[in-house]
Every structure is written in structure tokens, then in C-alpha cells.
Amino acid sequence: MSANLTKLAYQSFHQSKNYFSVAHKTLSKQIHKILYPEFQPKITPLSGEIVEEVQKRLNDLLEIDWEDAQKGIYPQSLLFENSWEDFFQYYPVVCFDLLQVWERIHKGRYQEFSPEIPKDIYPSYYLQNFHYQTDGYLSEISANLYDLQVELLFGGSTDAMRRRILAPMKHKLEVFTDIPQKQIRILDVACGTGRTLKLIRSALPQVCLYGTDLSPNYLKKANSLLSQILGELPQLAQANAEELPYRDDYFHATVAVFLFHELPSHVRQTVIEQCFRVTKPGGVFIICDSIQLSDAPHLASVMNNFYQTFHEPYYHHYMTDDLSGYLEKAGFENVQTQVHFMSKFWVAHKAILC
Ligand SMILES: C[S@@+](CC[C@H](N)C(=O)[O-])C[C@H]1O[C@@H](n2cnc3c(N)ncnc32)[C@H](O)[C@@H]1O
């Protein structure tokens, strides 16, 4: 009985986050229409069937999220976590920032950065206002707003999608049972604000965690989040995923969450080769990213609307790109895929040398 009540509380909590994000999107669309009546958005209205399908996929995600917690893959308390402090502090800023976002959309300005941001040290494909975000990934304010903006996009389910890496990761790490947990090393490539590292820490409290990202401000935000939790602080490093600063065969598990749709195709291959290089023989590499067209052709309008509304310059190509092919070309074997809600997972193995 009490488990049923807890499950109901979990479902209600998540559905209310979803309703909040729907209300946010509806209201901001209305305000946008009032302020810019002449603007014609390039999006396809979603049919009732598609909205129902998206809701069903969300319900399925919540179900598996609940079940994995019941199986002990991660603590049940994770299901009820929310960054309330960030929400109250930054939600008004997100709303206020919409005015700048709309200006950027209307003027077609999607490579716009504050003058103090050094631009010559980053690859050119990275110098974009992804999601039309102010300063792209390159300022403190962007780092503070990012998680909230992504939560509004995904109806509060972002961590539930990220958590889907934990079951395959724990399962694949079983090949290293003779190694003490404290000697297991896990790398999160493009760790952003550290959400995935936090989830891994909850599921595997003793392992050594590492995170890299190109954005110094996102790494600072990650450091502040991760220093609040128990356990050894993950080692964070500013690095391009195309040149990971680690020796060969170093990590028992490597992950990359919501990175690949933001890379041009040739860079996707290079990053996968780097992940192969730093993963140990016997280890696992897990990608979590957006679903692709072949996973849900009937959701093509949702995917098309996404890259047109959120300035995602590499997403159209990503929708049909063959990541399994890149993984195999890099040397990974036994590549398996799964799909949950709006996310897709590739679980790839690096063979043990005989
Ligand atoms: C959509 S965010 C995902 C962040 C995080 N993994 C998450 O789950 O929220 C993409 C991240 O990739 C980082 N990034 C993009 N290109 C990169 C590259 N070439 N090397 C390292 N990080 C990169 C960005 O700075 C940003 O933090």
C-alpha cells in the first residue's frame, strides 16, 4: 500500500512538472504572439494523436524509472529530487531572457556572444547560440539557466531520461567485480552542469568520477552542484571531446549525454574514436541523446519543430545519422540501442584483448 502511494506521489510530482512546462510554453507563445503579431513561426502544429503519443511515452518513461529504483539500481529518493533553489532563483530570469531570445530569433542572430567571451579558443562549430541561449554555452548566466530551460523543454523528465544509462552501466561493470569499487573510473564526456555525474554518484557511491566539458562556466556550475553531495568530488577538466586528456584504456565506463546532436557529423566520429581510445578493454561506452527519425517516423514533426525552434544547427543531420556505424568503425562491438520517451541510448562494448 505504501509503495503504491509513493508511486502515485512520484507520478503526480512528475506530471505536475510536465503541466507546469506546458503552461509555461503556452503562455510564452501567447505573449510572443502579442509582442510580434507579424511573426510566422516555421513549426508544424501537433495533432491530438501526436500529443497523446508523447504523453504515453512520458508515462512509459516514468514507469521504467520507478521500476529501476525499486530494483535498487538507484535510490528512490532520486525520483523526488528537484533543484528548487535554482528554480526560484532563475525561473524569473528564464522568463526575462525570453525577450532576448525572441530578438535573436527574429533577427536571425545565432552566433552572438558578449564581448568579454574569448572566441578564438573554441572550435567554430561550438560558437552557436544553441537553443538561442544567451551566450551559447559560454557564460555564467547561461550555465545557471541551462538546466531549467532543458526541464521546460522536456516537461521535467530530463533526469529520468539521463537515469536510463544507470542500469546498463551497472550491468556492464559487473565484468570488473574483482576490482574494488574505489578503483573503478567513469568518465562523463561533455558533462555540462554535472547532472549525470550526480546521478552516477547516487547509484555508485564509491567509484572515481571524471567529467570534461568545453565550457568553463558549465564546469564551475557542475563543481558547485557536485561539491554539495557526499562522496569524493569528481575530477573536472576543461577539454574538447575531440582530444580527451586521458591515457588509453583508462576508464571502465565512458558516457556522453545529449552531446552528439550538437556536433557536426565528422566531429561525432572523432569523439567516438576518442571515447573508444580512453575506454578499457572490457569496458562500456554509453551514449544518451535524442531519438532519431527511424525510431519514431510518426514523430517527425516533433523533431523538425525542435531544431527549427531551438536553433540546433546539426540536429537535422543527426536525425538520420548512423551512430551505430560510427561506434563499430571506431572498434566498439555488440552495439545495442534502446529508446525512452524522447531519448535514445547506444550501449557499446570494447572487447577484451585475448
Ligand atoms: C546539450 S548540453 C549537454 C550537457 C550535459 N551532458 C547534460 O546532460 O545536460 C551539450 C554540452 O556539450 C558541451 N560540448 C559541446 N561540444 C563539445 C566538445 N567538442 N567538447 C566538449 N564539450 C562539448 C557543451 O559545452 C554542453 O555542456
Approximately how much helix is present in the residues?
A: 40-55%
Indicate the overall shape: globular
**How far apart lie the N and C ends?**
52 Å
What's the total count of β strands?
Answer: 7
Instruction: Please trace the helix and strand order, writing H or E for each element.
Output: HHHHHHEHEHEEHEHHHEE
Q: What ligands are attached or bound here?
A: S-adenosylmethionine
Which value, in Å, is the CA radius of gyration?
20 Å
What is the makeup of the main sheet? 7 strands, mixed
Description:
- The chain is 46% helix and 14% strand.
- It has 354 residues and is of the alpha/beta class.
- A 7-stranded mixed β-sheet has the order 3-2-1-4-5-7-6, sandwiched between helices.
- α7 links the parallel β1 (185-189) and β2.
- It is globular and about 65 Å long.
- The model has no long low-confidence stretch (mean pLDDT 94).
- S-adenosylmethionine is lined by residues 126, 137, 162, 190-192, 195-196, 213-215, 218, 240-242, 257-259, 262.
Summary?
The protein contains 12 helices and 7 strands. The protein has helices at 2-35, 48-70, 84-107, 140-153, 158-162, 166-173, 195-203, 216-226, 265-278, 300-309, 315-318, 323-330, and strands spanning 185-189, 208-213, 235-238, 251-257, 279-290, 333-340, 343-349. Strand 2 (208-213), helix 8 (216-226) and strand 3 form a beta-alpha-beta unit.
